[in-house]
Design goal:
Elements (H helix, E strand, L loop, with lengths): L7 E4 L2 E4 L10 H5 L2 E3 L2 E6 L2 E5 L1 H14 L8 H15 L4 E9 L13 E8 L9 H4 L1 E5 L20 H13 L4 E5 L5 E4 L3 E6 L2 E4 L10 H12 L4 E3 L4 H5 L3 E6 L3 E8 L2 E2 L7 H14 L9 E3 L2
The protein binds 4'-deoxy-4'-aminopyridoxal-5'-phosphate.
Length: 306
């Protein structure tokens, strides 16, 4: 999928032309992966353009930065306004939003002291992340031979640019073997997550998802679905999941801002359920889309752009 340029990108407080949103090749982020970012969606709801869980995304970006001793030179309110301004400046009704905090151009050593902290916000139109038909029909995935980072190596709680080298390995391996996505285990062999999505399994109408200590990113969609599912009367457990539990699941699905709720119809060519999106997956998809598409917002999760 290729990106369709829009008019403006926000950089350090100013809206600059898309083509001019450039940084120096020796910027710390390029040399050493020192960036912390978010992926947020704004939906065109029946009540206007609305950003899904903006405060929680910005909080996570703040947390990611805190882990790396980075102070964002803008308040959360300023970032919130900057995101709204960027969407408006580009006249988009629905979009993906990518705020990025990064160590910019200063010195070239690993030591980041004194290197400026820069902030950029880009928006673009992004459809189905895991391919056409993924939301409706589900995808085929494999168990990755790559594991997620071990504890006390690369903090997986932080959404840092460098962590996505691991994600790229998972995704490339899956693609090379003809799968839409890979599922990685953690350092101890328990199920962790996809390259850019959290995972849920259903067995006997009970939902299971790995706990946050299993090298998963604390997904905003994951957290939202746990709430939606429990309020809908489902039992949800955050527990360790073994590889073979996935094979015998009644239903499996990925969730994430980009992937939304994507059913998984097979893993390692083992068919899940009857190979079609299961009833609980579809029920949760419906409940999620009622919020972000219809603008029904019992949880106050939407920030309206106007
Ligand atoms: N795990 C990883 C590695 C991700 O990149 C993402 C996407 N941000 C997720 C999980 C899902 O998180 P969220 O629901 O907040 O988008």
């Amino acid at each position: 999928m290729s990106i369709k340029p829009v008019a403006k990108i926000w950089m350090n407080g100013a809206l600059v032309d898309w083509a001019d949103a450039k940084i120096h090749i020796l910027s710390h982020v390029i040399q050493y992966g020192s960036g912390w970012f978010e992926g947020i969606r704004a939906y065109e709801t029946k009540r206007g353009t609305a950003i899904f869980r903006l405060a929680e995304h910005l909080r996570r970006m703040h947390d990611s930065c805190k882990i790396y001793r980075v102070e964002i030179p803008y308040t959360l309110d300023q970032l919130k306004q900057a995101i709204i301004d960027t969407i408006k400046a580009n006249g988009l009704k629905a979009c993906y939003i990518r705020p990025l905090v990064y160590r910019g151009y200063g010195d070239v050593g690993v030591d980041p002291s004194g290197i400026p902290i820069d902030v950029a916000i880009a928006v673009w139109e992004w459809g189905s992340y895991l391919g056409a038909g993924a939301l409706a029909n589900g995808i085929d995935v494999r168990l990755s031979s790559w594991h997620r980072a071990a504890p006390n190596t690369f903090p997986t709680y932080a959404k840092s640019t460098g962590n996505y080298l691991n994600s790229q390995l998972i995704r490339l391996e899956a693609a090379a073997d003809g799968y839409a996505e890979g599922i990685a285990l953690d350092a101890y062999g328990y199920v962790s997550e996809g390259s850019g999505e959290n995972i849920f399994m259903v067995r006997d109408r009970i939902l299971f998802t790995p706990p946050l200590t299993r090298a998963v990113l604390p997904g905003i969609t994951r957290m939202s679905l746990i709430r939606i599912a429990r309020d809908a009367g489902y039992e949800v457990h955050e527990v360790d999941i073994s590889r073979e539990m996935l094979y015998i699941a009644d239903e499996l699905f990925f969730c994430g801002t980009a992937a939304e709720i994507t059913p998984i119809r097979s893993i390692d060519r083992i068919v899940i359920g009857d190979g079609k999106p299961g009833p609980i997956t579809l029920d949760l998809q419906k409940r999620f889309f009622e919020i972000v598409r219809d603008g029904k917002d019992p949880y106050q999760w939407l920030t309206f752009v106007e």
